[in-house]
């Protein structure tokens, strides 16, 4: 499994470098999906598996992290992208659109945050962006 993770990381880094030649100026994006879940069923799990497979296969997908608050059960999924176009490919995915349409069955409420990352700093922590060096430049 570590080899697969290294390959995915390498592909993500290649996509970041490539994106600088596609007009994204080495932009990196975060999509944060925060939600309160209801009960999941077989339809949910099948759809979720398809969306996850699509996401991981998307050029420009760097990685994701997930956190569940043990008190409230609220879930936070952060997805990292090497370009706006990579991020938008998930938003336009047929399975993702279907899940969005049916979300009321499985999700009590949600918040989506989309942000352009302007700086990344890491000190000895395993993280989807740990290999990316992006010094914050501030307003220029």
From TrEMBL:
InterPro entries documented for this protein: Dimeric_a/b-barrel
SUPFAM superfamilies: Dimeric alpha+beta barrel
Protein name according to UniProt: Antibiotic biosynthesis monooxygenase
